[in-house]
Amino acid sequence: MAGKSSKSKAKRAAQSSAANSTESPLQSDVPAAPAPASSVPDNGTVDNAVEATVPEANEVPPLVPEADESESQAVAASNDDQPKQGELRLYPVSVKTQSGGKMELQLNPGDSVMDIRQFLLDAPETCYFTCYELLLRNKENETHHLEDYNEISEVADITIGGCSLEMIAALYDDRSIRAHVHRARDLLSLSTLHSSLSTTLALKYDAALNKAQSPGDKPNVPELDCLGFMEDVPASLRKLINSPTEEIKCVESIVFSSFNPPPSHRRLVGDLIYLDVVTLEGNKYCITGTTKAFYVNSSSANVLDPRPSKSGFETATLIGLLQKLSSKFKKAFREVMEKKASAHPFENVQSLLPPHSWLRPYPVPDHKRDAARAEEALTISYGSELIGMQRDWNEELQSCREFPHATPQERILRDRALYKVSSDFVDAALNGAIGVISRSIPPINPTDPESLHMYVHNNIFFSFAVDADIEQLSKKRPSSNVSVTEKMSSTDKVPCKEGTCDGEHNAELNCCNEAPLVESEQATYASANNDLKGTKLYQEADVPGLYNLAMAIIDYRGHRVVAQSVLPGILQGDKSDALLYGSVDNGKKICWNEDFHAKVLEAAKLLHIKEHAVIDASENIFKLAAPVECKGIVGSDNRQYLLDLMRVTPRDANYTGPESRFCVLRPELITSFCQVESQAKCKTKTDEGTDIVSDPADVSVDTSKPGDDLSHGEENGASTSENTATEKQITTADSAAISSESSKRLNEIAFNPNVFTDFTLGGTQEEIAADEENVKKVSSYLVDVVLPKFISDLCALEVSPMDGQTLTEALHSHGVNVRYIGRIANGVKHLPHLWDLCLNEITVRSAKHILKDILRDIEDHDIGAAVSHFLNCFFGNVAGGKSSPNSLHAKNQKKDQSITKKGQGRGKGKASAKKSLSSYMIVDSNTLWSDIQEFAKAKYEFELPELSRTTAKNIPVLRNLCQKVGISVAARKYDFGAASPFDASDVLDLRAVVKHSVPLCSEAKNLVEMGKVQLAEGMLSESYTFFSEAFSILQQVTGPMHREVANCCRYLAMVLYHAGDMAGAIMQQHKELIINERCLGLDHPDTAHSYGNMALFYHGLNQTELALQNMGRALLLLGLSSGPDHPDVAATFINVAMMYQDMGKMDTALRYLQDALKKNERLLGPEHIQTAVCYHALAIACNSMGLFKLSQQHEKKTYDILVKQLGEDDSRTKDSQNWMKTFEMREVQKTAQKQKGQAVDAANTKRAIDLLKSRPDLIQAFQNAAAAERANALNTAVLGEAQPRGRGFDERAARAAAEVRKKAAAKGLLVRPQSGVPVPQQHSQLINPGTAASSKKSGENGEAKVEEKKASSENVKTTNVVAPAGLGAGLTSLDKKKQKAKK
Q1: Which pTM was predicted?
Q2: What is the DSSP string of 210-235?
Q3: Please, are residues 1059 and 63 in contact by the beta-carbon 8 Å criterion?
């Protein structure tokens, strides 16, 4: 039973979404530092296949046992009361199931009863029991009844053993019996199983191996068409979507009977529900669900007969009853459960907010009858519970924040509760916002003008934010008309809500009329974004006694809705003195409270906000440590809340003017600046002391730091070779002295968020000037240091974004706002792929605002036609019809005329219909593109060239636009050369796009950072322990379906890979791949890199055919996200070529290498290091074919580029020189052997002629012999030399495996256990480690990248092997540091 229990542990989160009755954490896998083999049963697909095929291929080095030893030591330590932070101690507890069976669970004393219910819900033996109570018997045979929210440790001590659990059937009620029926339906469906293509590929490969035992069959794999679909990306759209899982039909239908609800006299005897069931045999049954059981009643077609039928079957569960009624059901249900059990555990887990899929199957699958689906759709609740009271989101959230968090276990429980509540809130807010926008939820103030409507549904407050960016474009609009009535933001909620009950409403509106521009901007998209960011920052500061509301932003059908949990008491208006801090009227009257100020000040120190004086309209001076317009409110629960945090960071001094009020700096920039400033001050405190940052020379010393710090500590290779030496000096001898001093100075640096605003500041002029100078300094730091550094990193491929999303993440992680993207575009004009990427991102962002503006005015029946018309105008060439003015201006003028209306297309009637018709039909391609160019100039200060219309006509741009707006289109080939590429039938869905503030687990984040530090030092065992602990904690807090869990899996795979454990690395990589597919999307660049890494691991196990299939998928995804013209695609081509080289398919390998060379020369230039990589790869390929002369020529080009880029003294340049000498020597050897063979032939011929003169009869025979000898000599000279040299230049087999692997692992080098083509380690590893995700991902996951290593010349002979493409950006900086240390 232990195997089952561990499986239950591993799959404790399966079907969590299906079982809404649980609030338990999602946990899986062996929780603490799992040995690779221990998880194999959980992954009974690909990993078993891997282990079965090549168990001995690994020449197991000492490092792997060391890792195992470290795990056992960790467990031993935990048993000695020294547990690691993420480790769990598991104890066996036997369970007596409801059906009388026995099973065993591995439990931890910290597990709650909800956790146990989730484990039982995932176990095959008990998955269909939903209504039961749990009894716990301890060693003394005492019985304890377990409440759902108890922890086991509160009831009994399971550590002493002898404990057992018993499931006792409980009585159903209306809610629980409906939940039971829903659970039964979910169990019968495979729709909750999300099978990954990687699993399918591995299973097919395993099956093929089992069928064809002879190894000769292996190479006969059809050649990939990677080059083909790279040239025709639109035609490959269909390949992205995995074929849906084939359903196994268990029953024809299970629906709620039309006999419902039970008549009153039947309610009195326990009837709760009636179900109509049709089995596969065609039998129809009417089933009664009572408080105790399910049974078949004797009802006829139209008359209820509640008596039990003759069969007399009665069971506690619906599935149990169906198994007795239908043999076909029993068989099919067993198949469904086996199918789910055979999948990877992560494929059964539901993810929070799965990514928007912009592609849908084409042709559209038939829509079939499904009565159960219809029932669920018709009971529209928009996120609220149908039965039972609504959840008090605010109380739940704040109660979770008040959980104790002194110990690691308490912090895990607190983080888990916060994550669960926040996730549920976002899900409910999403559904509620859709209801609000669809006009299905009435406002709470229906008598007010529509523009002032507010909504409360499911205890969530909803309000609209308008897109002020669009309004600013119309120069013709009078400023007095600026959206006075569209003042719907979180800023205005407090006064409005207070005003709804005490008559202050009109007064508040009058205040708005006095400052229309300021108030309208508080309702912009930007202010909502800033508010969300500010809320996140205060949540992370986590100051006791200071609370924030749960918040989410939902964009749907052109509207932006801000959802917040309801502030206690604010709707009742029972607190006239609710406002304690801040201002509701833009600084005219400021409130202040000493106790509240103390808490705000504590948070301000963490957020680098300065305590400063502000003067209100009555000349009163207040000391604030927050923006003036924030609102500190005490709720009816006596908690102190801080709201409206739109300017937590100071205003960007580079953007002035009233329209830029909410152009604030990013918190990542503030953090980076403070770190650089404090370090600079520490280094020069004995010299000049204070004014350091104003000296750009001093700042530039540390420009390598901001990138690293902003990417959450991940080594993204952002430091250049020039400043790494300085960085090394800082981090070695001076690090201890600097760290303590800099940490003090770090907290001293603070900014006044109210400078450069209309508020009146207190204090002396000198203080105000100093505050303004500080903000100017950090703003100039952004422009003068961060932006040039970011651009240089882009050019050097240190940061390598693949699409708009990863470009945005890269910008944000470096502290750069997207509004600077125009400057970045101008800085990368010389690199086509970056220029196109920036150009397309500006275009798409501008088009997004215009499309949203159109969608706001569209009626429901016009959405498909409007979206397809817009896409045709954008991607095609729609000619103008009637003479119409600029569409955007026309719409804006209409909004002005209807200023009393909402202006968001939410009104009904003929006027609205006319407006919607004109708003999208008058648009043509020319007007649309002129609007886009105008928007780009106004928003991004960038002149879009006419070329942008051409560069935008590709699949990555369509993908980007669809993802930003929430559109789904048919997965078919689109002809972008046509005038109208899209039909209305191609637009298949419009989904909401969500931004939220679901908290991250700080505990796991810290462990990952510590693990990366250990990894950078080459301490594989220690880093493995840290990453495993982080993985375990995240499993408990977020469940497996989370991006951070994927990060941990990637690091674990990297560590195992460098330790030589390929099978273990594949197992972890498979997990990362499944999570990325589910959490980021099928075609996200990180998913592509995951497939690439899987391919390299399979290649490391000599499963090259399977590797190539994964690599083909990676190339398909890269083509969709970035298009075929990207350096990552070229780098992936090099890896594919090396795999074909290993298979002996040299022609195919050369094709890929030549294509990679063309791409790099076109994209990066003929003298880029990446181009040198291609030449070197070609040299090695030619070497393998015995073409040493060509090898020498290619290597000479490599050497010339390296000399120019790196100098003659660089180790990589010297390595290239050594390669040239090697190729030259082999050419000489080949020529010598050839000449020797020819000399021998000449002598033999002379002797033969002399002999033949005396023996004419033998002339013919000797002539034949001479010809044969010549042929043999030539074959020996060419083939005998080329093949062993080309494929066997790896001398590691002659060395002690342990020593080599230790050295290689310490340096981050790849050690492949088998011989292969000598991939030029010294230069193929020049491929840049940057990745699509650039900053956060920092390059470890870029499968298309090979580690850039400074291998010293003595390693030339021992390490010329395929490098782990893309796995080593974390180890890249390690190599740089170690080389500097050697120097």
Answers
A1: 0.77
A2: HH--SGGGTT-PPPP-HHHHHH-TGG
A3: yes
